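anyone seen this seq b4? input:
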Amino acid sequence: MGSTNGPNISELSGSSLRPAERLPLDDKCRHYEGKQQVPWDIQKYFAQRYSIFSWYDEGVHLTDDAWFGVTPEPVANAIASSFGGVAPEKTVLIDAFAGAGGNTIAFALSERWEHIIAVERDTSTLACAQHNAEVYGVDPSLITWVNGDSFEYMDALVKHPHHLHPDLQVDMATTVLFASPPWGGPGYRSDEIFDLHTMQPYNLDQLHAAYEPMDHVLFLPRTSDIRQIAKLAPDNRKIDVIQYCMYGASKAMSAYIPASVKPIRNENGCTASDTSSTDDSSSDSSDSDDSDSPPSVQCSKGPLQEE
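predicted toks r here
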């Protein structure tokens, strides 16, 4: 899950985005070795550090903010495994909120993707993600890291792809976007049904409006209002939802949403959205083999379609 630090969406300009160089760890990138070093508000997350990163002791670094949003490793691996059923023509994955690298690393180690573009707006958090990918032995040529905003990236990809570095220009018909946005802090846990229209700093409408030109997956709180998600289903299409559980308790859900805008051609001739080429992807994308998931994670799935 990505950081909330950085410019407001309304302040973003049309500046060109480029791949990030290898960033050095700075004083915000920390590897705590004992509870006495850890700020009180993240001590419970530190106690679960081996569920978050099993290789934590090998030198994993996080910013203090990143502890709140990183996907636990067994869940990240289960998500990556569930993408195995995505249509084979999908070869590029965009991780829109890369955070400290939990999901990006799992996607890379799944060996499913030819190219991964990982976007993170906070420089220190991105430095942690790059470092953590190295700790896990990820092939550096597989991931293009971007120190920027995924909303700006998507806007440029649709409207001005020629402004982008060649490594960031993709064919939307062969690309899937995964978004694990901030959920507005731990307060979402108190809601029996979480209203996704009030999620901060980005609500469901903002996320879907930005990402709908391509097939996209939203990683959301486990109590998210299913009715709100179902309304995003394109005509005659269904949205697959997977609940991810650890130790018998649901931790989160993913909604697999097909592209819902008409096919257009962007300025470099690539198809920005071609629903005919992904007709079966919404049903295939959630076909996960539970036997391939880590032992502590179970996945339950089901299709959604607005009545």
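The domain at 35-257 is CATH 3.40.50.150 (Rossmann fold). The first strand starts at residue 92 and ends at 95. kinda curious what u guys think
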